[in-house]
Amino acid sequence: MPDLGHSAIQVFSRDGELERFVRLAGEGTPLAEILAYREQIRSDPLSDGLIAQGAGGVLVAMRNRMSRRMGQPENEAPPGVDDRALETLDLSGNVIVSTPILQGWRAPRTEVTTEDRYFEPGFHWDLLPDGTIAYSDSSGYAIKLASSDGSVTDVLTRPLSPQAVSGRVRQATFASRLERLEEQLARGPSSAGPLPPRDPEERRRRIRDRAFYHEIPVVRGVRATWDGGLWIQRRGEDPLDDAGPIDVFNAGHEYVGTLPAGAPGMPVAFGPDGLAVHLERDELDVLTVVVSRVVVDGR
Question: Is 172:119 a contact under the CB 8 Å cutoff?
Fold first, then answer.
C-alpha cells in the first residue's frame, strides 16, 4: 500500500505482516510526496509488482514545475505518468522502478488549464486475471482491451451514445456543485488529500468558471471479476449520477445483461465464486464493508 509520509510503498505478506518498505526515487526531495501519489493502484497478475494510474492535473503541473526548478533538463520528461496513463511499479528492489505502459486519450483543449471540464470523459480501468487491461477513455461506449504492453487487442461496444450538454444541464450542474460545496463547508475543514483546502470563495468561483465538455460520457466505471468478466457502469438518469445501470460481460467478453441502478451497485472488489465487496454508509456517514454473493443471469 502507498505510504505518502515515508515516500514509499509498504509491502505486506499474505498473512498481513509488514515485510518492508520500497522507497520512491527522489525520496527526501520536495518532489517526494507528489511523486508518491497515484490515482489508483492494482496488483499486477503477471508479476509481483503493481499497475498504477498517474496523478491528476494540478499535481502533474506542480511536479513538472518543481522538476524544472531543481535543474531537470528541458528536453527530459519528468518522472511518472499523468492521470490518463498507466505504469508498472517494480517492487523487487529497494527503490521503486516505474515504466509507462499505456497512454489513454485526452480530449483536446483550446485553453491551457490543469482542471478537467465538466463532463470531460474519465479514464476508467481495471485488470483482468490474465493481465489484460480493460479501460474506457472517451465519451462513447468503447471498452478497450489492451495487452500488458499497452497495445489494444479488442474493443467492446454497445449501441449507446453520449448526450449533448444543453443550457439546462449547465445550470443544473452549477447548482448541484455549489450545493455540495456548501454541505462540505458546513461539515468543517478536512485534512483529506495531498493539497491544503482552498478559500471557500475561490472554490465557489472555480465552480462557476469551470468550462464544459460538449457531451455527457456514457461510461462511469469499469470493474473486472475474479473469473475474467467485466462490469461496466453507465451514467444514471441525471447526467451527474455516476451510479447508473451496470452492463455485465462474461469471461468470453460477451454481453449477458444489465443490472438496474442500485441493485446491487458497483462493487469495490470481486472475489471467487461470485463474491463481491461493497461499501455502504449509514446515516452518520460511517462506512461498512459488506461481502455478498452476486448471481447474474441465473448463474
Answer: no
**By 3-state DSSP, what share of the chain in percent is helix, strand and coil, each rounded to 5?**
20, 35, 50
CB-based contact 136:124 (threshold 8 Å): yes
pTM comes to 0.84
Instruction: Give residue-wise pLDDT tens across range 16-54.
Output: 899 888 887 755 555 555 556 677 899 999 998 999 998
Alpha carbon distance 154, 134 (integer Å): 10
Dihedral (CA of 101, 56, 221, 129) sign: positive
pLDDT value of residue 12: 87
Q: What are phi and psi of 63, to 5 degrees?
A: -60, -45
**Angle (CA) 269 252 52, round 5°:** 40
Nearest to 100 by CA among 90, 120, 112, 85: 85
